[in-house]
Structures are given as C-alpha cells and as structure tokens.
Design brief:
Keywords: 2Fe-2S, Iron, Iron-sulfur, Metal-binding, Oxidoreductase. InterPro entries: Cyt_c3_hydrogenase_gsu, Dihydroorotate_DH_Fe-S-bd, FAD-bd_FR_type, FNR_nucleotide-bd, OxRdtase_FAD/NAD-bd, PyrK_electron_transfer, Riboflavin_synthase-like_b-brl. This protein is α/β, with parallel strands linked by helices. It is 24% helix and 31% strand. The chain has nine helices and 16 strands. The strands form three sheets. A seven-stranded antiparallel β-sheet has the order 4-3-7-1-2-6-5. A seven-stranded mixed β-sheet has the order 11-10-9-8-12-13-16, sandwiched between helices. Strand 9, helix 5 and strand 10 form a beta-alpha-beta unit. Helix 6 runs parallel beside helix 7. Bound molecules: FE2/S2 (inorganic) cluster (FES). FE2/S2 (inorganic) cluster binds next to helix 8.
Amino acid sequence: MANSLDPAATADDVKRINALLPVKAKILRITQETPDVKLFSISTLDEQLPFPVSPGQLVMLSVFGMGEAIFAASAGENCLEVAVKRVGILTEALHEAKAGQTMGIRGPYGNGFSLDIFQGRNLLFIAGGIGLAPVRSLIKHVLNHRKDFGHLQLIGGFRSPKDLVFKRELTEIWPVSEDFDVAITVDKAEEDWRGHVGYVPDLVKKLKPQLDETACILCGPPVMLKNTFNVLEELAFSPENIYTTLEMRMKCGIGQCGRCNIGSCYVCLDGPVFSLAQLRALPDEY
Ligand code: FES
C-alpha cells in the first residue's frame, strides 16, 4: 500500500493512512458537565487543532495502555471538544485523566451532517442525553452561519435536571439566540424543577413543531429515536426530511470490526448520518 511519503500516494491514500495514525495530543481543559459526563478539550502538544472535523463526525481517543474508543467531536478554539460519559473501563480512565495529560487522537470518521441539505431551511433539533453532543456540533455551525438557516427549534430530553449536558448553552445561550426556541424535558423532576416533565416523543407531540421547509435532526437512545420517528410522521414530517446519526453503533470507525452493520450497510462507512427514508430501506435493526 502506498504511504504518505510515497510520491505515488493519492490524496485519498494519505487521508486513509492518516485516519489510522493517532496524533499525540494533550488534554487542554476538562469541564464536568454532569455527574457522569465530562467535556474534554483536546489539542496537539503545541495547542493547535489536531485536525478539522465537520458536525456529526467522530474521533478515536486512545489512553496509552488502556485502549481506545470513538466519540462525537466538535471543533472548539484550537482544540476538539469531546463529551465522554462514564460507562466502562476506557471512559473511566478518561474521567480519571487530568488537564495536561497526553493521549492519542485520530480521525475524523463518518460522513457527518450534510450541511448543503440544511441550508436555507428551518431546523428542528431533537436530542436525548449525551446525544446532544453531535447535535450541539451542528447547532454551533448553524449559529456561526446564522443567515444561512431559517427558524431553529431544539427539544432536549434528559433523565433528570442534574443530567443536563451543555447546560449553559441549553439554558442561557441558545434560548436568547436569534429565532431559536428551546424546550427541555426531564424524565424525573426534582423539587426545584419548573420545566417540562416527561419523555421527548410526548413533548414533540405537544409542541407540534412547524412543518414548512423544516428538516429534523435527531440523536439519542434507540427507544427515543423510534418513538420520536413515529410522532414526527404522525405530524406529517416525511422520512426524507428526518435525519439521525447512529454513531453509538460505531466501534472501529473504518469498516474492520463488523460491529456496526445493519443488513449490508456499514454505519461507519455509509453513515453515521442517515435520513429516515434511508433507514426504512434497511432491516429494522437500528
Ligand atoms: S465500526 Fe467497525 S466495521 Fe463499522
């Protein structure tokens, strides 16, 4: 195989090889988002962006001696931002890490959201829990190019008020952004919670988001996705205008492990972003 030093290497060869080579990186900052989610700002050792990512793409993080795992990433200032929920050995090791610690990062992986398709349209974002991470990446892009998009609406659902990830953006920044409606619901409230209580699909049904020229972008747990797809279709959204990312199925990110396939489709190679119309043509395993 050609390598990046081989004069015969094409741009695609170099891209493929780079996708397998970790860049030595360091943790610039760690923000505790919720009791079990931390946001890592990751830069190169000289505090530059490791590589560009588009909204919806993923990166592979490696903790030396512990292994690696794949996460949604968004571009921050001179860094990549990765939200990590503590769910296993690798994420536990990440949660134990300190700012300044070195690690490996490679990528980006996946198709990401097709920004051209959303241009000029109203956007309805629906996110559950840590599923807000890739959606936030798209929201950041939209807010940075505000004139290119229409009305914005976000419906976010969390287990409880203490599980609100990106709380400052959710409660302080986005609700006062131009033409941006934000609604939050929790499965279980605490005494001082004054917002909605209940599941995301029920809130979508209650709010009846506007349909005209609207593209809907969802990310969250499978049960939330399936029930919300049904509600959106009841509200007359067409499957062609509903998009989701199945990033939670990705493991190796490069078509090697065979853990992400749905029928003949590989989520890591063909996605992770799909329209509901595309998913409906696949076996019902998503
Ligand atoms: S994530 Fe390994 S084959 Fe797709």
